[in-house]
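Workshop exercise sheet. Pairs work together: one partner reads the sequence aloud, the other fills in the structure field after running the prediction. Swap roles for the next sheet.
Pair: D.N. / O.F.
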Amino acid sequence: MVVLDVSVVNVALPHMGHDLRLSQAQAQWIINAYVLTFAGFLLLGGRAADLFGRRKVYLLGIGVFTVASVAAGFAANGPQMIAARAIQGLGGAILSPATLTIIITTFHGPRLPKAIGAWSAVAGAGGAVGGLAGGLLTGWANWRWVFFINVPFGIAAAVAAGLYLQEKRNRDATAKLDVTGAVLVTGGLTALIYGVVNTTTSSWTSSSTISWLTGAGVILIGFLFWEARVASHPLVPFRIFRSRPLSVANIVMLLAGGAFFAMWYFLTYYFQNILGYGAVRAGFAFLPMAIGIIVGAQISSRLLVKVGVRPLLLVGAAFATLGFFWMSRITPTSSYWKDVLTPAFLCSFAMGLLFAPLATAATAKVDRADAGLASGILNTARQVGGSLSLAVLGTVAYDRTQSYLHSAPVGSHSAARVAKLAYVAGYTRAFEISGAITLVAFLVSLSLPSKVGHHSNHAQPVDPAAAASVVGH
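Structure field:
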């Protein structure tokens, strides 16, 4: 449910925006509201499971997530939907860490890798079928069912947990919940993204934009001060960033993860608004890309021991850069099979290649006690990168579209043709910048030590739970 709800909304997004009277820029918040609260409270959710009991926190997460899904399904306008999605993200942040923690503390010995493998397969399947499921539910029923479908699964999971799960908690855990840190980072990022998106209606130098961006800066500086000087048990202990592989992995994940996140968003609108696909056909159009992620992840996990981390990061970032620049050549009359499928598959394959080496780099040279924290920070970097890139690239695409509309000669084409050309000009500009972002990720990867994850005497084997948490989201 948690993984599915990141991807299942994409195909339904144009329909939601139309029914809820949201512009394309405003519709971004249906995604951002979920991802921001999920990312901001993810580490907090993991600590809550240790402190208060995994079964209890798991049930709380299911309850919040399911009730929020009902609220999203019944949303009558944009603000109601965005509020419901924010609460849903909070529920996911509570629920997601508890699921993996329960598995790790329940299974031991040779059964543990099998259990984690099953968890990873289900999580990966959730992400892979999200686009298809969103298309089928929207096309055959209504977009509201992408949220209502969570209700029977949520009830079944809660009943099964009540019957079969035993309460477990870390009785030695003394850390307190850093709620203030979670609120500050989520609030600061929300203000930052709102300030960027606000530029679609106000200029960068307008008082409203400057106020939002200034407020975001103040809040985020307050977060850094709180974590470094005030919090007795900080949400993000900065000491962990002394590991250069971890720092590099998080920067690459922030950049590359953000570019990939935006790709799904723009292709959704391209398929439905430009190529004229219905929701079902658009869902099937994403299926090869899901396969690309799975294939890339499988190949990467097998090559990791043989070639090490850095070569895989370089190849993955290079493939992504090539794919994004290739995709920036699409036009309103492009063919899915000839012009879109290959570069989109290449980007998705690259995304799969990057998962395992990034998880390995993030956890290889940190204390084993911090492996879970390191994987959680990496996952948070991906979610934050997705929100930031979607806001920036969405704004850039909107500006490019408006510029094209204003500069198009009168009578050169029909109004519908000009509109399509303008929208595609925005999408291609976003893909060009995505290619530049993944090129920067390639350059950053060069600073990674060459022996991480490749027969290094200092590197520690990747924590399977850490890798699973990254692949699953």
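Discussion prompt: The radius of gyration is 22 Å. What would you look at next?
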